[in-house]
């Protein structure tokens, strides 16, 4: 449409270009004062309600509606006027960031220092510390606090300021965690004092490597000074545990938008009202992961240190930016706090059927907790960390952290679809132009991860709580290929395997693991438990007995030979096995007892080839199978030796039964 019926040339669209092509002469523009004409004039649009560009931009963002006042709740801040509440909140943040040697906290300001014109700034600026004569430079500057930003704001922060942050084709935020792409359990330290010295599990097999209070303070000061030296820090105030009676308030202070978004996804997100009465946190994380610890500091054996101080309710992270360190650090804290309240903390996934039947999925990293608890036919309660109380189960977290190496839409549709706007994609590789992620690419690490809020899974059960579990599924990824795909366990066997916590560590999640290696990790999470494993085991036995839960051992690892010659059991088969456990059909199956491990294996499972149910059938070399079986049995026996002189629960009889429930040879 180069010209309309009146012979006028439309300036917009193709007309001008087409006309220009005609020997370079510019088209003549006829102006008309007839208003209702087919030609679109600029004047016909309503004018913008701004006089300047700055004013125009200021119109773009509207201030959030004021938070509704809390009615009927006598919270810390409930009765305070807005101004006073803001002041107390900033004082609380300043107190968190206080250097312990200088006494007072930094002057904190809310908002991005880049937004000088920010209207909030006047209102939210409070000089908390009175200037002192011995002032250092750090006491002269302001610490800008980006407080509980939204995912959209965090995206902008990440993309603008953090190298390696990109938006993928499905809208997720791709980022790099730096040199560390997995947890560093050897760099974990726990303050040993008079109380924790008695309460916690120390020594051989324990994840708690001691440090003293003084050294903790040195690292804390290092982290706080680092954070205060930055232009701005991110502060997240959130909750742990969906059980309202046992909810823990956590504050995470971090230097990266990526870390703030990760914790936004992983912890429970407070409502504006809940945030108003947040008050003082129960626990604080100082994540100064970009800054190393000082190896001249006592107890430091590398540049990474993850330090837990239960007396101070604080954790300090130096020298690692792997985000999983924060969520698993808080999990350790829950493994201390909850059992003190007679609540069992569980390293397990959890889901629920339409009829309210709950299943727990215990397992070490990479065994299938996230994959198998995320089941389109069931309600997801959580993928990794739970509590079992007198009334049922509750998720500790508000999000999931899925492995995404080799992720496929067909095999794991719910996880695939959760990777969208708001999701953090750690260490994945994507196509430069289309930003399509190649989930098969291990160039950065094998431990690629996606962190998303739990409601990104369509059938998430919100609130994430459920009744007492009916099935307790122990997942082991057996790289030797000798454990059956599924076995039914009696209570003593369940306890034996729970305490043993056998699996093969697969590459990536922990540093230095390049190929599957047999490990025993008590309670399927020795890296996170704080007290002796028998304490958790006794609680589990008591609860399973009381509520009549059935134990199962599911091998999600190798079949047809060990790692290298056999192959991993097809996910589709494992899903069929899990379906049969949930439906109750497997409980009624016919069973046969295996030699050596004495495991009850079914002769048939719907949808699974019967010959794979006894692993011996899948091995081409029967002698090789027997040798490997004996080798694994020996490893179990050796490992259990540390537990032989520990009583499990009040009952000696159970202890004896558990000891007898291991391999017999
Ligand atoms: N038979 C199987 N059962 C469970 N997971 C399997 C199986 N075969 C392959 N996998 C893969 O193993 C990984 C299990 O990881 P994930 O569920 O994240 O473990 P966890 O949550 O216990 O750390 C996923 O990448 C999944 O696709
Ligand atoms: C985040 C982790 O948990 P998992 O692998 O069990 O999902 C981890 O171990 O670092
Ligand atoms: Ca996968
Ligand atoms: Mn997981």
From TrEMBL:
Keywords: ATP-binding, Cytoplasm, Decarboxylase, Gluconeogenesis, Lyase, Nucleotide-binding. Gene3D superfamilies: 3.90.228.20, Phosphoenolpyruvate Carboxykinase, domain 1 (3.40.449.10), Phosphoenolpyruvate Carboxykinase, domain 2 (2.170.8.10). InterPro entries: PEP_carboxykinase_ATP, PEP_carboxykinase_C, PEP_carboxykinase_N, PEPCK_ATP_CS. Coiled coil: none annotated. Residues 1-19 have a biased composition (Low complexity). Its EC number is 4.1.1.49. It catalyses: oxaloacetate + ATP = phosphoenolpyruvate + ADP + CO2. GO terms for cellular component: cytosol. GO terms for biological process: gluconeogenesis. CDD domains: PEPCK_ATP (cd00484). SUPFAM superfamilies: PEP carboxykinase N-terminal domain, PEP carboxykinase-like. Pathway: Carbohydrate biosynthesis; gluconeogenesis. Residues 1-32, 101-123 are annotated as: Disordered. It is found in: Cytoplasm. GO terms for molecular function: ATP binding; phosphoenolpyruvate carboxykinase (ATP) activity. Belongs to the phosphoenolpyruvate carboxykinase (ATP) family. This is phosphoenolpyruvate carboxykinase (ATP). It comes from Salix koriyanagi. The lineage of its organism: Eukaryota, Viridiplantae, Streptophyta, Embryophyta, Tracheophyta.
